[in-house]
Write a structure and sequence with these properties.
Rossmann fold; six-stranded parallel beta sheet; 15 strands; alpha/beta; seven-stranded parallel beta sheet; about 400 residues
Length: about 400
C-alpha cells in the first residue's frame, strides 16, 4: 500500500471554520486504497487560535499529524511571516523522522512550508505534487505595492516559489491561471491539471434541506447576497454604496445580505449604519446554513477590488450550486470568460457603484433572465465543481506520478 503525505497549513476539521479541500483530498485518496497522512498546523488560520487537538473526533479514513505553529492575528503582517517560517522549520524536523512516504502532495502557499515539503521529496527521491490555490507574492503586492520596495520585501517569497515550481513532478491548480504559473519560467513538460476548489454537492443540498425553513423571507423581498471573507481583496464598500443608490431610487424591497466575517467587517458595518441603505451583515454561519441562505437569495455578487489577484475562488462553487445568477467583478480573464461563455452571470467593472446598481436592476426586472442564468449555474456546479467527480483527476495524477517513479 503506497503511503502519501498531504501537507497543508490550513484545513477545516470537524466543526471548525475554514475550507475542507485538503481533508476531502485525503479522504478520497484513502478510499482509493492509499495510506494517507494529513499533516497540518496546530494553528487554525480562520479562527486565529490554537486548535484543541485532543478535542477532535478522529474517526477519519486517514491519519492526522499536527505541526506546531505559534500563530498570528492578522492575515498580512510580519508575525504571520515568522509563524509560517517556524511551521516550515518544524515540518522539516518532523519529515526527517519519516522514511516511508511514497509521494508528497502539498499546498502552496505558504511558500516556505511548500519548500520544506519539496526538499524532503527531493532527498527521498519521491514525487511531489503542488496544489496551487493562490499566488504569493503576487497577492501580497496588492496590499503593499510600493515600487522597488515591494520587490525587495517579497524577494524571499518569489525565490521559494520559483525553487518549488522547478522541483515538482505534478501540478494541480484551482484555476488554469494557477496551474500555468509554474511553467512561466520553465519546467514546461510537467503534467498539470485544473481542479476547482469545488464543493461537496451532497453536503450543500443537505444543508438546504435542513435549514431553509429556518430562514424567514418576505415574499416581496429581493435578496442580493455576498458570501465570503470581508477583507482587503473583496469590494464590500461598493456593494454598500450601491444599496444606498437602490434605496434612493425607491427599491425598498431590494435587500443586501452579507454572509461572512473578516478584518474589515466592523469598519464596513459602521459605514452601512451611517448610510440610508438596506444592508444586513449576517456574520459567519455554518456551511450548511450558508448553503440554505444562498438558495433563498435571488442574486449573488462575486465582488472583488480592481487589483485583486484571485481567479476562481472557493465561493464560486457554492454560488453556482445555489442555482442563482451571479454578478462578477473579479478581473481574472479566465473567470470572466467562463462567466460569459457558460452564461451563468454577467461581468462588470470592479469598484463601480453605477455599474453594479444597473446590473442589480437588470436582474431585478428580468425574472426569466434570472431563471435561465440560475439554471445554467446549477448545471455547471454539477458538471465541473462537484468534488465527488472532479477530484478523481487528482487521484489520476497521483497514480501517474507513482507509476513514473517505478
Amino acid at each position: 500500500m503506497k503511503k502519501i503525505a498531504i501537507i497543508t497549513q490550513g484545513v477545516k476539521i470537524n466543526e471548525e471554520k475554514g475550507y475542507t479541500r485538503f481533508a476531502y483530498i485525503a479522504d478520497i485518496l484513502a478510499r482509493q486504497g492509499f495510506q494517507v497522512e494529513l499533516i497540518t498546523s496546530t494553528f487554525q488560520h480562520w479562527e486565529k487560535k490554537q486548535r484543541n487537538i485532543n478535542g477532535f473526533n478522529h474517526d477519519f479514513t486517514y491519519k492526522m499529524k499536527f505541526i506546531y505553529e505559534p500563530g498570528y492575528k492578522k492575515n498580512i503582517d510580519l508575525t504571520r511571516i515568522i509563524s509560517h517560517k517556524i511551521l516550515a522549520q518544524n515540518l522539516k524536523k518532523y519529515l526527517k523522522t519519516c522514511q516511508d512516504f511514497d509521494l508528497i502532495y502539498f499546498e502552496i502557499p505558504p511558500n516556505d512550508v511548500a519548500r520544506a515539503a519539496v526538499s524532503y521529496a527531493k532527498e527521498r527521491n519521491i514525487p511531489a505534487i503542488a496544489d496551487i490555490n493562490d499566488l504569493w507574492p503576487e497577492a501580497m503586492k496588492m496590499v503593499i505595492d510600493i515600487p522597488f520596495i515591494s520587490n525587495f520585501l517579497f524577494c524571499p517569497f518569489m525565490k521559494d516559489a520559483e525553487w518549488v515550481y522547478q522541483n515538482i513532478n505534478g501540478i494541480i491548480g484551482t484555476s488554469q491561471e494557477y496551474a500555468d504559473r509554474p511553467i512561466k519560467n520553465g519546467n514546461y513538460n510537467i503534467p498539470r491539471k485544473v481542479v476547482y476548489v469545488g464543493i461537496d454537492l451532497k453536503e450543500f443540498d443537505d444543508g438546504v434541506k435542513e435549514y431553509s425553513n429556518q430562514i424567514q423571507k418576505d415574499q416581496r423581498d429581493f435578496w442580493v447576497m455576498y458570501a465570503g471573507t470581508i477583507g482587503t481583496s473583496y469590494d464590500i464598500k461598493t456593494i454598500i454604496l450601491s444599496a444606498v443608490q437602490l434605496k434612493k431610487k425607491g427599491y425598498q424591497n431590494i435587500k443586501i445580505k452579507l454572509l461572512g466575517d473578516g478584518p474589515l467587517r466592523k469598519k464596513l458595518e459602521k459605514m452601512a449604519e451611517s448610510l440610508d441603505c438596506n444592508v444586513e451583515f449576517l456574520g459567519y454561519v455554518p456551511y450548511k446554513k450558508m448553503a440554505a441562505y444562498l438558495t433563498r437569495a435571488d442574486l449573488l455578487i462575486n465582488s472583488f477590488v480592481k487589483k485583486a489577484p484571485q481567479s476562481i475562488v472557493t465561493k464560486v462553487g457554492d454560488y453556482l450550486a445555489s442555482g442563482h445568477p451571479m454578478i462578477n467583478t473579479c478581473s481574472s480573464r479566465e473567470f470572466c470568460k467562463k462567466v460569459k461563455s457558460d452564461r451563468f452571470g454577467i461581468n462588470i467593472e470592479p469598484e463601480n457603484t453605477i455599474k453594479l446598481t444597473q446590473a442589480i436592476e437588470i436582474f431585478y426586472h428580468h425574472p426569466k433572465k434570472r431563471a435561465i442564468y440560475g439554471s445554467n449555474a446549477r448545471v455547471i456546479a454539477e458538471k465541473e465543481f462537484n468534488r465527488e467527480k472532479a477530484y478523481l483527476t487528482i487521484v489520476d495524477l497521483v497514480n501517474n506520478c507513482l507509476m513514473k517513479k517505478k
